[in-house]
């Protein structure tokens, strides 16, 4: 199934045919062809929780991979978001969301420095984003950026109590009292920098902490944003840049949907779909780990394309991802004609 992710196979029969065509190479990589019926049986009976456990185990190795975000502060930076995976209602009735749609939801907490999804959850499409968001336990001192879909005053208090900083956007109808006004750098697009207390009955009941409101105008689009954070010391421009860097998680969703098989499924049961999704995330982790063996500047997408054409070759990752420059080998070229 991981091979099908890397090679873009479309169905169980496609996987079987591809393996059969590579029989002369499979022996040397410690593998063998597998029957379509066997794949179908495993997709139905092997619990998807097994692959989720494999993902979590592998994540422990991927978290140690080197990487650094673009900011000067040393705090880990995460981007939190969820993306819907559209399904056919006629083929996947168990995932019915409305009368005419069926979806699953993939929630991700992406480490912006390593590009590794350190927090992943799969849930039904009708589930609110906050349900999974609350379950992620971010390390103390880290910074989490998320959109207005995750605004929850009780969660704000919980994050603050845990020593986790967050950056999000203020909802239009939020009620608050200004406690302090700070000087601003109008040339940088900052028009307001305030310490506020959310003062609605709803916010007071949930213990909303003291927060910071920043009003920023994007010089390129002219659009005005109101950011909300519990970090009271960093510059206003840094807070705005942190929220802008949340776009990394959107690029992550785009990359996996374009390069891995998470839109067309080889099974129709819930277990088969969840199995394929967890194996896709495992495959991404393997590629993310391999990225640190590749040349500088290589993306996961580029690594995937290179691995695709070397999938059944018995070559080391170093030879594939960081080949020696032309002319490194001395001696007679192998393909030169002897005249």
Description of the molecule:
With 339 residues, the chain is of the alpha+beta class. It has 13 helices and 9 strands. A hairpin with an 8-residue loop joins strand 6 and strand 7. The two termini are 48 Å apart. The relative contact order is 0.15.
Task: Set down the secondary structure blueprint.
Blueprint lengths: L1 H6 L4 H10 L1 H4 L9 H10 L2 H15 L14 E11 L14 E10 L4 E9 L4 H7 L7 E3 L7 H9 L3 E5 L6 E6 L8 E9 L2 H5 L4 E8 L6 E6 L6 H9 L2 H13 L10 H21 L9 H9 L8 H5 L18
Parallel strand pairs: 1-4, 4-5
Antiparallel strand pairs: 1-2, 2-3, 5-9, 6-7, 7-8, 8-9
Which sequence of SSEs, written as H and E, runs from N to C? HHHHHEEEHEHEEEHEEHHHHH
Query: Which percent band covers the strand fraction?
Result: 15-25%
Q: What spatial form do the alpha-carbon principal axes imply?
A: globular
For the terminal residues, how far apart are their CA atoms? 48 Å
From the alpha-carbon coordinates, what is the Rg to the nearest angstrom?
Answer: 24 Å
Mean pLDDT: 88
Summarize the main sheet.
Answer: 9 strands, mixed
């Amino acid at each position: 199934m991981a091979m099908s992710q890397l090679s873009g196979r479309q169905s169980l029969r496609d996987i079987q045919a591809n393996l059969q065509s590579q029989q002369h190479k499979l022996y040397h990589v410690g593998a063998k062809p597998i029957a379509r019926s066997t794949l179908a049986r495993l997709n139905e009976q092997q619990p998807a929780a097994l692959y989720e456990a494999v993902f979590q185990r592998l994540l422990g190795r991927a978290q140690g991979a080197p990487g650094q975000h673009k900011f000067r502060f040393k705090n880990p930076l995460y981007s939190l978001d969820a993306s819907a995976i559209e399904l056919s209602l006629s083929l996947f009735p168990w995932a019915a969301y409305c009368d005419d749609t069926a979806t699953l939801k993939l929630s991700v907490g992406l480490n912006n420095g390593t590009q590794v999804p350190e927090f992943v959850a799969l849930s039904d499409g009708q589930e609110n984003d906050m349900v999974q968001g609350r379950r992620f336990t971010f390390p103390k001192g880290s910074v989490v950026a998320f959109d207005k879909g995750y605004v929850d005053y009780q969660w704000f208090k919980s994050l603050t109590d845990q020593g986790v900083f967050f950056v999000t956007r203020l909802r239009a109808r939020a009620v608050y009292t200004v406690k302090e006004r700070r000087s601003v750098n109008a040339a940088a697009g900052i028009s307001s920098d305030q310490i506020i207390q959310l003062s609605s009955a709803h916010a007071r009941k949930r213990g909303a902490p003291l927060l910071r409101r920043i009003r920023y105008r994007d010089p390129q689009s002219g659009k005005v944003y109101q950011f909300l954070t519990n970090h009271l010391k960093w510059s206003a421009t840094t807070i705005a840049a942190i929220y802008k860097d949340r776009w990394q998680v959107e690029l992550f969703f785009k990359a996996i949907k374009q390069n891995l098989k998470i839109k067309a499924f080889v099974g129709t049961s819930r277990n088969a779909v969840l199995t394929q999704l967890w194996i896709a995330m495992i495959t991404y982790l393997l590629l993310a780990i391999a990225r640190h063996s590749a040349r500088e500047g290589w993306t996961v997408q580029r690594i995937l394309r290179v691995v695709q054409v070397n999938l059944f070759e018995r070559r080391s990752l170093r030879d594939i991802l960081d080949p020696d420059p032309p002319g490194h080998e001395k001696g007679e070229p192998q393909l030169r004609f002897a005249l």
